[in-house]
C-alpha cells in the first residue's frame, strides 16, 4: 500500500494503536493459563458462529406455519450448502449450551462468585437463561412435529406459572393457542430480542470481570504460589497470550462442529399436524433433566419447583455466603465445602435424569 | 480445598458431562430417526454371515438381500431367514398348515368358494414338497409360499386366499393366455403374462444331497400375483410386499400396483395419475406418512390429503359420520361392485362358504364399503352422483358395444364365417381389442375418474373401431364366406334389438334437428336420472 494512502488512513482514523493495545491488555493470574479457563470465551465465540450461520439461514427461512417447514426443507435439500449451514447451526447450538455449562461448572467449582463477584455470577446465569431461550426458539422455528409440540408444551408450562401464567402464555403464543402469528413471534425472539439481550448481558458480564479482575482460586498456599510465580515470570497477559489460547481452542471446537455437521447432518422431521400426537414428545437434550423433573413433579407444583431452582441458581453467591459457608465453619471447621458438595450432587442428578429421559 | 484437587474434580466432572451428553445426543438422534436394530436370531446368524456383507474373508454372496432384510420390519421384530425359508418340523402343528407338505387348491367357480386339501401318498402319508432341500444342515425352501406367511399373518392370508388376486393365474386357460403362449410364443407368455398373473412353478431337477433343486426356467423367477407354488398353494405375497424388505409402504405405493395394472388393456396407473386423486397424491405423498407400520395408516385418521390405490380398495378407514371403522382387507375385490374385465361387464354375486361365512359381500354391500372410503373426503350427493355416472358409462359400453359385438362375433363362429381357432384371423383381433383394450379403458376410466381414458382412449376408439373397422370387417368376412346376406340380417337384427337402433346406432344414418332433439331428451331422461 502506498505510504501516502497509509498516512491518509491514519489521519482519517486517529486511533492510538499502542494505547488500544494497552487498554485491551489485562494481567491475569497464572492459574488462568489452563485450557478450561477458555470455556466462557469459547461460548462467546460460538455465539458469533451461530450469528453468522443464522444470518445465512435467515435468507431463506419464512416464519409462518404454512411456509416454515417448506423453507426449512428447501434450505436442507435444495439450497447450496444449506444442509451444511443448518447442521453447523444445529450442532453449534448444542455446543454453545455445553460450553456455557462447562464454564459454569469451572466457575462454580473454583468459587469464582465469591469476593463480591455476585454480579458476574448473576449476569452469567442470565446468559444461561438467554442461551437456553435462543436454543428453544431456534428449534421451535422448524415447523415440524417436534417444534410444534415444543411450543405447545412450553406454552402450557409458561401458562402454569403462578399469577402471571395466563398473560405470559398469551404473550408467548401471540394468542390463546398456536396460531398464524406464533412462529413470527418465535422468530422475532430468536433473531432480534434474544441476541440483543445476550449481547447486552455479555457486556455486563465482561464489565464485572474487568472491574473486579479475574478471581484467583484456591487456598492460601495456592495464592502464595501464584504470587511467587508472578514475581518470577511476570504477569500472564490477556492480550495476546490468553486471547490466542481462546482463539485456538475455539478453532478446534469449530472444527469438531463442522466434522459432526458433515458426519451427522440434521434431518428433516415430519411437518407438524395438530391432529397427530407423536409417540415421543421430547425437547432437545439440554432440557431432558428439567423435562424429567416436570414428569416427576407434575402440574403447577413442578413449574414452581423449576422456578425456585432457577431463583436459587441466580442467588447462589448469597446462599453460599450466608447459609453454606457458616455451616462449613461451624460443622466442618473449613475441611469441607458444602457448596461444592451441593453442586456435584446437582450435577449428578442432572446427568442421571438426562440419561433416564434419553433411554 | 486446594486448587489442585479442584482441578481434578473439574476435569472428572467435565469428562463425565461430555460422555453423558454424547450418549444423550446419540440416543436422541436414534429416537429421531427411528432407527432400530435388526435382531439376528441364532438359527439365522449363519445365513446372515454367509449371505451378508460382513464376512471376514470377503464380501458375502448376497449383500443386497441381507441389507434389504436388515432394514425390514421383520428384522427389527426378530423374524429371521429361517422363519420364512425354513419349514416347521414334522408334526409341528396340523399337516395341512405345514408348508413342508403339498396341498391341492380347488376353486369352485360355481359357488366361488376355494379350499385346500392335503395331498397324501398311497399310504395316506402327507407328501413333502418337491423343492425342499438341505442347506448347511437345515431343511429349507427357496420359493416361499403364502402358507409360510400365514403362520404369522393368518387374517391377511385368509383374506388373500379368498381374493381374485390369489387366483390370478387362472387366466392360463383364457384367450389372453392362448394369445401369449401360442400366437405370440412361450417366451412372451413367460416374460410377460406370467410375471403378473403368476407361473405354475415346477422343479425340473430335484434336490440331491446338499445341492439345491432347480426350478424350471420358464416358471422361475416369478413374483406373479397368482403364482401356483410348488407346495400346491396359489399366490405370492411378494407380488406386493417385495422381499426381502416386506415394506408396507411399498405395497401402498400406486407404482407397486402399476407394475401390472397399466398399459393398453388395464391402464389403472395411468388413469390414477390423470385423475384428481392421482394429482393430489403426487402433491401430498411425502407428507402422508406412508411409511407408517401395518395397520397404522388409516384413511381419515392418519391421512386424508389424497388416496393411493390401497386407500380405497384395501386400507382401513376411520369412523366417520354414522360409519363404524372399516378394517383393512387383503381381498382386492371386497369393495368392487362391477367387474370391468370381461366382454360384458357384470356385478358378480357374493360368496358364502359352506359354514355360512360371507367370503364376499353382494354387489351392493361391496359398493357400500367403497362408498364408506369415498365419504371420508366427499359428501353423499357427490358419491351417489359419481356412481350414477359410472354405472351409466358401464351400461353404455355393455349395451352399445359389448353385447352387440359379442353377439355378432359368436354368430360368425357359429355359422362358420370364422373358425374355432382363437386369434388367427383379422376379425379375432378387431373384436378382441373392442372389449379387451378400448372397452376396458372406457370402463376403467369411468371407474377411476380419468376423463381422457373414458373419452379419447376409450369411447372414441371404441366408436371408431366398432363402426369403421369391426362392422365392415364382419361384412367382408361374411361375403368372403358366401354368407353375406345371412350375416347382414343378423347384424341388422342385433343392432335393432329392442330400442337399440334409436338409442345408440341411428346416428350413422344422419339426424335432422328434431331427431337430434329427441335423442338429447332421451339421453337426459336416461342418464340424468338418479335411481
SSE blueprint:
The complex is a heterodimer of chains A (about 350) and B (about 525).
Chain A: H1 3-12, H2 17-24, E1 27-28, H3 39-58, H4 68-77, H5 82-109, H6 118-140, H7 145-159, H8 165-173, H9 182-212, H10 220-233, E2 236-237, H11 238-263, H12 288-296, H13 299-314, H14 316-332, H15 338-358
Antiparallel strand pairs in A: 1-2
Chain B: H1 3-33, H2 42-51, H3 63-70, H4 73-76, H5 81-85, E1 103-107, E2 114-118, E3 133-135, E4 138-140, H6 146-149, H7 154-161, H8 175-184, H9 186-197, E5 203-205, E6 214-215, H10 248-252, H11 254-257, H12 268-274, H13 276-284, H14 309-313, E7 351-352, E8 358-360, H15 363-374, H16 380-414, H17 426-447, H18 451-480, H19 484-496, H20 500-505, H21 513-527
Antiparallel strand pairs in B: 1-2, 3-4, 5-6, 7-8
Would you write up a description of this structure?
In chain A, helix 4 crosses helix 5, helix 5 packs across helix 11 and helix 6 packs antiparallel against helix 9. The relative contact order of chain A is 0.13. Chain A has 15 helices and two strands. Chain A is mostly helical and 359 residues long. Chain A has a domain of 251 residues: Cytochrome Bc1 Complex, Chain C. A two-stranded antiparallel sheet of chain A has the order 1-2. Chain B is built from 21 helices and eight strands. In chain B, strand 1 and strand 2 form a beta hairpin. Chain B has four domains: 30 residues, no CATH class; 156 residues, no CATH class; 124 residues, no CATH class; 147 residues. Chain B is mainly alpha-helical. Classes of the chains: A mainly alpha (359), B mainly alpha (531).
